[in-house]
Queue: 2 jobs
Job 1
Amino acid sequence: MKDKKSSPWKSIQIGFTVLLVLFIYAYGFDVTKVNLEELRSERRQESLTRVTRTLAQPDIITYDKERVVVNSPLYVPCPSPSNLPTAEPSFAYLVIEPACANPGEAVQVEGFNFPPNITGPIRFVPGNDPLNVVALGRESIKTDGDGHFTTSFVLPDRLSDEPQHIRVTISQNVGAPRFSQTAKDTWDKIIETVFMALLATTAGTILAFPISFLAARNLMKPVRSPLTSIALSVLGWPIGMGLGFYIVHQIGIFTIPLSENIFINLVSVVTTPFVFWFAFRWAMPPEEIRIPTPSLRLTRIFILFIAILIAFFGFFQLAGLATNISLSMEKSLGSLGFLATFLFQVSDILRIITPALGALATGGALASFLGRIGQRTAEKNPAASVKTINFILAALAGATIFGLSGWLVEWLYQIGRIEYTFWYPVLIGAGLGLLLAAFTQPKATLPTGMVIYSITRTILNALRSVEALVMAIVFVIAVGIGPFAGMMALGLHTIVSLAKLYSEQVESIMPGPLEAITATGANRLQTIIYAVIPQIIPPYISYTMYRWDINVRMSTIIGFVGGGGIGFLLQQNINLLNYRAASTQMLAIAVVVASMDYVSSVLREKYV
Amino acid sequence: MLQVKNLTKIYDGGVKALDNVSFEVPKGQFLVVIGLSGSGKSTLLRCINRLIDPTEGQILWDGEDITAASPEEMRRIRRKIGMVFQHFNLVHRSKVITNVLAGRLGYVNPAWSLLNRFPKEDMEKAIKQMERVGIADKADQRADELSGGQQQRVGIARALMQDPNMILADEPVASLDPVLAHSIMKHLEEINKSDGVTVLCSLHFLDLVHRYADRVIALNDGQLVFEGYPRDIDDRKFKDIYGRDAERVG
């Protein structure tokens, strides 16, 4: 241990640090314009008080009102002969003393037979007409327990020969309390908000789950493959995706005439799973001790392919069935019509994503198949011929990547010159591919996993840094103003942030079970299912809950930019200076967020 | 017959964990690997099923070159080599039966694993193996609810599910008390004697070595310093293996 001596140098350092901190905060005050002068001004305080008081009275409950208006005549100024008409005798009446006065003078107003303990405005009604809606003055009266009050009223500067009036208006609640229109609107919107958050969280979780494995360093680091395999996979993706999309699209077209008939729908929806299951079982025996012959393998692949085609046919038929059912149900369901709409929308989603799924599946399958062939080629052939193959394949793969990127650039910026956006990129890509092939050992493995890891991480980080509010603006343009845009924005943000959180959990699992499962001969997929997933379920649930919580909070403000939900209403009311309504909405948000917080903490405790 | 020829492993940091190690294990032998902590025992065992890729050298098993196997061939080789670990390496949150069934993963079609399904024969086999090591009544408990000795039995049952021709045991009893140590070692011995499974086992305690080993190899600082029978380890050999200042315990 060193003994601590207070050296002058150290003191100077501390002093300097303190000065620096002071300087930083001083600058901060200047930049953020900290100024309490405004707060002290009368005007600010008054409006602050007013707004706070309004906010404290959210517009939730309302009553039917009964208004009692009592008018009593008087002269301003006093006429020479006093011929004041007597007040009409009524249930509640006013006595004015004196019955005439000059402007600026006060008269004594006494009220009888009013409802007890109630307040209301007392105002001067100019002109002869007691029903005149124009009234002057801001005074108010308060009745005692007998419904009686006395107040003095200063007359305004309105002169007339005819009698004018003093009016007391009392409004009284009658009947049972009921929810105000604002409360009803708020309820509608808060439900919309909660479900927006629910859908966004669900969609986000489903997609973030697989992505999180790609962004986990410990899983991706051991993934290495030879250049031949990588190049073939790169070629396999676009070809497979194109092919898959085309085939599934064709199936869709083929299905259209068949999907009109609800009977055909039903039959195919019921039978396709069975056909698929039997084909799948035949092509994928659960356990095999001996290595299958190549011809058996080819047959299996073919059967599997047919089975998958049938499965996609089944998907389209399912979509058709849902559409048909929803159309026929719509009329008979009445208030439950949203179920039919739901079915219709689900069928629409099915119809849209089926070709995309087909494209992805075929792309992945072809890429992995070609990758395996590449692996085999690199292992079984002499180095010299592998090198030659690598040159050709790497050039082709590079050209493909750059050609596709060029096409994307062309689509984004519409340059319109094919040599810049296609031919040059293709040439550059091919050149880079050749260089890569030249500088790598033909049989050496490249860190494919780490490349995928880095790309995934970069995309996740880039998207995560864009706030959901900003994404909502883009989606509002894409799908129009409304909760759907908000849901899409929240969903996208959920995917990227959950994928990152999840992947960090994957990175922190215990390596022992991973090692043990690998040692049994399990492949990567099996290792993930049996060693990784059981370990990450509790944190995944916990993070998903937390994210739902965040999404509820976010969805309350996403409406500010047109993303639907309660934020839209809140912003509107703030802009209209309708603070009582805004207060209702703020209260609703607080209640929902607080109860979400409570529910999620209870669930987390129970399941994690 | 397992032949290890000139095996060398240098880690990324430059640490030489194995230095030109060569030895042979006839089929059905109980071979014990001894040596200080950090002498390369674990690395050696993990090189044999290629959980760690050796830097140089060859491992031949029944004539097949493990070091040159492709991923697909590796899957086929690994499923015939069971492995038992010091810290058991069970998946804590899974049930015992699932942990045992995991031993079949090298055989099961990956597409079926996606559905989390095992064939019926495997289920029956799993129950049989759990009975063999005496934990059949624990099948539906979570793995982390079991005691250390029970967890290691699950580990052995998992290895047995593979129908192994060889078992690699990496200090299987180092985290257990002496009584449990013997019961676990007896299971390994029984598997070795009655099923004819080759066992490579690293151990710390010499009384266990004398009791169970057919043959012994010793590593010191990555080098093979002894190869012979347990009775040949006298005081002089002991000091060669464990260093000048070492004293015998047990």
Job 2
Amino acid sequence: MSSTFEQIANIIAETCDIPRDTIKPESHAIDDLGIDSLDFLDIAFAIDKAFGIKMPLEKWTQEVNDGKATTEQYFVLKNLADRIDELVAAKNAGTGTASGS
Amino acid sequence: MQLEYFTLIDRIVDLNIGDKTIVVEADVPQTSTIFEGHFPGYPIMPGVLLTEAMAQSSGWLLLGLMKFERMPFLAMIKEAKMRGFVNPGEVLTIEAKVEHEGSGFAVTSAKVRVGKELKCSADLTFRHIPFPHPDLRVHMDAMAKKIGFPQRALTHD
């Protein structure tokens, strides 16, 4: 089974028509890859489906807007992969924190 | 339907919150200024309005799921297919189903039929936000009453 990062990178490449080899773990989805909010909706849909989760995008956005988090924490792909792994683990543990809005 | 006012749904036939589906009907008017231009001598419903009708149907479904606490706005249209002409005077049956509920967005699929004939279909993505203006909420409440939005649908968990 491919790593979470690999799956995310493949989704981004396919959804946004970005060459796969330009998508790195250190890539920032917005600043480096130029993904806009509408494209990110498409990516979120694909990630939610692929991993069986509900990425709490609104919560993350609010945290960034409130200065409680940086965009790097959620939108640098290796960090995004970590967040997704956490959501999947929470879902599998039945803690009910795999979603949020 | 009042095409010029984008009032495209006439009545809700069925709203199933559990299944996340809706069926609505819409009466295409016999006359409209829209038909004067689309097209002279051969009036048919514009595909953009059929797509909007699918979006509004999906919107009522999402409003029900969100208990009118948030307003969905169309963000993305995929796989929109106009499969046959829709003529003045015909009655549309529009079905929509939620395919995914994300954080701040939702994806639906929708179909328009005249009788048993499938006329168009699309996959639609919506962003939803808290009502941005109280007047909009008042308008949506009035529209809900007009088209028979079942209030019992708002009592779900």
